[in-house]
What does this fold into?
Amino acid sequence: MADSHGNSAANTQEISVEAPRISRIVNKSKFSWAGTFTELIEFTNKYLHLGDGVAKVIDNENKKTIKSDHLILNWYESTGTLQVQGSRSSSCKTYLNQLIDCTQGIEFPDTSDEDGAACPQIWNDLPSAGPESADIVTKSLFAQELDKIWSQIKILNAKLSCESDIIIEQEDNIQIINSLKQKNQDLNDEICILKSRLNQEIDAAKKLTEERDSLKTALQIVRKDLMKFSDEKLICRSEQSSNYHRSQFDNVSGGKKTKKQKPRDPPQLVNHQNRFEALCHEDLVKDSTSPSNADKSFTTVLVGDSMIKQIQGRKLGREVGHRVVVKSFPGATTNDMKHYLMPTVDKKPQQIILHLGTNDLCDHSPTVVAENIVDLVKKIEMESNAEVILSELVSRSDNVLNDAVKGVNKRLIKYCNQNDWRMIKHQNIDRNCLNKSGQHLNEKGSVNACV
It folds into this structure.
């Protein structure tokens, strides 16, 4: 039985060449051969083992016959039909059907036993064994199929192992990538925080720079004010001393008539200041004739551009009955006044009169100039308790700028009405009140401006 099983396995490998060429047609009684007649003869010799017992091979045009003592095979070449007849036809048909059933769906290697030594005597055993021989063939085919499946399972296991290693490696890589992404996100968040802090530091540095520049400007103004005040104090003392000696001389001369001398003007200070230096006419109101008439506790500061540089605060103070300080900044714009006004605001005067805006008209529209003046007034009100009074812009001889001046004054009147501010109008100043350049007040204009 073991030999038969081994021979069956060998026989199964040989079927790979010829068995797929035979198939059933109807009800397992008729078959079809897809090869040539020569191949059919080789098939019958190898698998049916007719061998030397073949009596005849008849080769006609329509039918070709292989005839032995117990079996007749008729093959019609035109249709491929194969008929099985003879005393052993039933056993042969059963064997062929089992052979067809076992080989369907199995891919056999393309090898064959050339010498046919391994082919069992299946056909010779059919009369005596019958179905047992067919079972041996079937089991052999199943065994080979199982071996093949097992080998495929081993291959799949190897592939799965390799794929598993790849998947594990990919999972590790994914974890590393996620970790790197998280670190990158943390670094980006830290960068955003540092950028925000840097921007805050930059803003703080800008504010400190602006404050430093403002303090520098204020210190320069204070220093120049002190120098101016010192010079004017010396001049005032010199005048008082001269008047005192003159009065003593008049008393000594008695009733003698002396030649009336024209009083000499006080010495004038040489102006060495540039267009942005303060021409500060600060006067300590010391009226020797009527000291009780001046209210020294109340101070008015007149701040403006070069248009007010001819106004004398000392004389104006005698007119209004309290201390008046005039600060003129030639060429100053509304933006410059933000720095120039700081020392004045720090001294806490009771009134601040603003006269500025003419120097802005070359670069800005009347609307912008008026808004800048209003912003400056609001800033003074926030930083002090002083009453702020606006002074109208003075008309000039230039018609173009004159129209712009009127536009600024019109808007300033509107803002004063809205904010309940007082405003000084200069309707009594015309072109006759301007100097030769037509840009500044002459002596008459300075007097009219104080009226």
Remarks:
- The longest helix spans residues 131-253.
